[in-house]
Amino acid sequence: IVRSSETMFAVIVGSTTAFQAPSKLSLSKVAETVAPAVAAAVLATGAMPAFAGDAGAGEQIFSGNCAACHAGGQNVIMPEKTLEQSALEEYLDGGANEAAVVKQVTNGKNAMPAFGGRLSDDDIKNVATYVITTAKAGWD
């Protein structure tokens, strides 16, 4: 858990070169500039950033809204696109992380409907935490 969002914000903002508009945006240059600021923020707070949601609450929401298609981390519509870690890494836009799950659940994609507006932002964060946590541990 990040103990001080102000500290992290100050460290990142303090890296003014991260916020200068270069003539040609280079991803590697941005990474070189931002990575030290993020690392400094982690060191300054003494903790890694925490998951945004509550996995226990997410499990309940998942059971009521997602399990019809994704029971046990599977996918009854598109069998190759499961919620297993390797499939999330391969198919999820943005990779196997909470932000990518939040985006997919909120907006939907292909056969998956959007749940933004049906579920609260907190519910979606909780589902994302549950999905990522369970994918890393392995679905039963």
Automatic annotation (TrEMBL):
A GO-annotated cellular component: chloroplast thylakoid lumen
Start and end residues of each Cytochrome c domain: 53-135
GO biological process: photosynthesis
Localisation: Plastid, Chloroplast thylakoid lumen
Classification via Pfam families: Cytochrome_CBB3
InterPro entries linked to this entry: Cyt_c-like_dom, Cyt_c-like_dom_sf, Cyt_C6, Cyt_C_IC
Gene3D superfamilies per the UniProt record, alphabetical: Cytochrome c-like domain (1.10.760.10)
UniProt keywords, alphabetically: Electron transport, Heme, Iron, Metal-binding, Photosynthesis, Thylakoid, Transport
GO MF terms, alphabetically ordered: electron transfer activity; heme binding; iron ion binding
Record family assignment: Belongs to the cytochrome c family. PetJ subfamily.
Classification via HAMAP family: Cytc_PetJ
Physiological role: Functions as an electron carrier between membrane-bound cytochrome b6-f and photosystem I in oxygenic photosynthesis.
Record's protein name: Cytochrome c-553
Origin organism lineage: Eukaryota, Rhodophyta, Compsopogonophyceae, Compsopogonales, Compsopogonaceae
